[in-house]
């Protein structure tokens, strides 16, 4: 992942407290690889990195963050800005019905999305009508009917109520004209006062002129308020050419990214946003109706970067610690000199940021520590605090001196069992070791000092 690779390049960075050209280049090289790994298109990566370098050069020096962290922060801000710069919600027509047309390749998730959108709209007290204009594939109409039923939404199909079996003879459905069905669907919505019409269309496996012509025909007949281009995030580098073909052939007002539950890093989001200029409006994360949400640029940015929510952690840390405190603490952590007194102070500072589990969960790589984290709760921390308060300043400064008789005294003084004190002291030594090595990996200022 990027954080692992950054850790490698961080070892070479020396804490100058400001961003040098070499620092910026080193980090940008890693960011570039991370973007390519996330399937961002090469030209998009190039122009993006150029902008980052410009911004980084003019960046103010941060006392709390090292140069690499500063560049990463800029990259993240820039990514979020691009992905969400013009984030907008569906614009509803002044005169209902609002028409939403779905376009995209076969299998991209249009029909599934139709159901998700219908449910989402119903939850907001809209009355959506689903219109089945995919007459290409046997079974497409009944798929929409099933999806519509699950969403509790009405479906308008060429032969309402008819179950359309697969096979060669699809009950004359293939003879119907999708453009006519679309037109009739809009009329139905007006007659029966549905306030939104969702038009499901046919897709092909690849770009196809006939398909584009049909989609354009449906567009002209329905005059959609929104045309959503549905894009499978797993499609990778093909995202750009596919999006361009649909932009030229049909045109669209927004993008829906699907199959984000897969392992795609989602670089398609950045590519499509950059190349078409159209906002990503929704994200689909599974086959069920509920696996759907409005698009969150910040989540997508950290997914593309592969850094967990490291940045929000940095931001929170910046808010809570003053810079000098952070430097001091980091130096002690990095060099393994942390005392129980520091530990207590840090713990109090960290607790100001919210429940400890949430916080630790934001660290990249923390997934592997999940079980350990699950065991940490705030009550336990209260006890830890009580135990440390029961120690003398000398004991806090040099925990190695805490022998058996001292442990007994501390336990009695703080109202816990000796085994609790033992556990705390043991864990402290473990944590000190782990934090020192983690600080080294993440390039905290203290770790650099310790290495020098
Ligand atoms: P269409 O051809 O564009 O209408 O695509 P469909 O809606 O029929 O979806 C194709 C397949 O992808 C179906 O098996 C869906 O269940 C599945 N699918 C759609 N969206 C998602 C998603 O977000 N995640 C996952 N895992 N599967 C999805
Ligand atoms: Mg479909």
TrEMBL record:
Source species, domain of life: Bacteria
Catalytic activity, as annotated: GTP + H2O = GDP + phosphate + H(+)
Residue ranges of domain SRP54-type proteins GTP-binding in the record: 279-292
UniProt GO BP: SRP-dependent cotranslational protein targeting to membrane
Binding positions for GTP per the UniProt entry: 104-111, 200-204, 258-261
Keyword Cytoplasm: yes
One Gene Ontology MF term: GTP binding
EC number(s) recorded for this UniProt protein: 3.6.5.4
One Pfam assignment: SRP54_N
Recorded GO CC terms: signal recognition particle
Record keywords, A-Z: Cytoplasm, GTP-binding, Hydrolase, Nucleotide-binding, Ribonucleoprotein, RNA-binding, Signal recognition particle
Cellular compartment(s): Cytoplasm
Top-level class of the enzyme under EC nomenclature: hydrolase
Functional note: Involved in targeting and insertion of nascent membrane proteins into the cytoplasmic membrane. Binds to the hydrophobic signal sequence of the ribosome-nascent chain (RNC) as it emerges from the ribosomes. The SRP-RNC complex is then targeted to the cytoplasmic membrane where it interacts with the SRP receptor FtsY.
Record comment regarding domains: Composed of three domains: the N-terminal N domain, which is responsible for interactions with the ribosome, the central G domain, which binds GTP, and the C-terminal M domain, which binds the RNA and the signal sequence of the RNC.
Record text on subunit structure and interactions: Part of the signal recognition particle protein translocation system, which is composed of SRP and FtsY.
Family: Belongs to the GTP-binding SRP family. SRP54 subfamily.
Protein name: Signal recognition particle protein
Species whose genome carries this gene: Rhodococcoides trifolii
């Amino acid at each position: 992942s990027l954080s692992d690779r950054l850790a490698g390049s961080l070892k070479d960075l020396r804490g100058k407290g400001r961003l040098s050209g070499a620092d910026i280049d080193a980090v940008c090289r890693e960011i570039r690889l991370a973007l390519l790994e996330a399937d961002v298109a090469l030209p998009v990566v190039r122009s993006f990195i150029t902008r980052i370098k410009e911004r980084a050069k003019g960046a103010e020096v941060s006392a709390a963050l090292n140069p690499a962290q500063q560049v990463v922060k800029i990259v993240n801000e820039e990514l979020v800005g691009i992905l969400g710069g013009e984030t907008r919600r569906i614009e509803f027509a002044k005169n209902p019905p609002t028409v939403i047309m779905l376009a995209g390749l076969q299998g991209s998730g249009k029909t599934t999305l139709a159901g998700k959108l219908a449910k989402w709209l119903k939850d907001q007290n809209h009355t959506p009508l689903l219109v089945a204009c995919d007459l290409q594939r046997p079974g497409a109409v009944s798929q929409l009917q099933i999806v519509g039923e699950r969403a509790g939404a009405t479906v308008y199909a060429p032969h309402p109520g008819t179950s359309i079996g697969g096979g060669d003879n699809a009950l004359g459905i293939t003879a119907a004209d999708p453009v006519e069905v679309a037109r009739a669907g809009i009329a139905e919505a007006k007659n029966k006062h549905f306030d939104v019409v969702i038009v499901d269309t046919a897709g092909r496996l690849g770009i196809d002129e006939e398909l584009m012509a049909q989609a354009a025909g449906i567009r002209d007949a329905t005059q959609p308020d929104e045309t959503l281009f549905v894009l499978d995030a797993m499609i990778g580098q093909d995202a750009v050419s596919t999006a361009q073909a649909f932009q030229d052939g049909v045109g669209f007002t927004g993008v829906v990214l699907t199959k984000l539950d897969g392992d795609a890093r989602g670089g398609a989001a950045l590519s499509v946003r950059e190349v078409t200029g159209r906002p990503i409006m929704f994200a689909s994360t599974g086959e069920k109706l509920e696996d759907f949400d409005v698009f969150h640029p910040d989540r997508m940015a950290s997914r593309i970067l592969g850094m967990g929510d490291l940045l929000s952690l940095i931001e929170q840390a910046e808010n809570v610690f003053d810079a000098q405190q952070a430097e001091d603490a980091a130096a002690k952590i990095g060099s393994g000199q942390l005392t129980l007194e520091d530990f207590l102070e840090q713990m109090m500072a960290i607790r100001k940021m919210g429940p400890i589990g949430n916080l630790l969960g934001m660290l990249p790589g923390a997934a592997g520590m999940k079980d350990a984290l699950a065991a940490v709760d705030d009550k336990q921390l209260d006890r830890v605090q009580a135990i440390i308060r029961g120690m003398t300043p000398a004991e806090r400064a040099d925990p190695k001196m805490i022998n058996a008789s001292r442990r007994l005294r501390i336990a009695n003084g703080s109202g816990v069992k000796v085994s609790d004190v033992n556990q705390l002291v043991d864990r402290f030594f473990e944590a000190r070791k782990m934090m020192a090595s983690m600080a080294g990996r993440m390039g905290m200022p203290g770790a650099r000092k310790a290495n020098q």
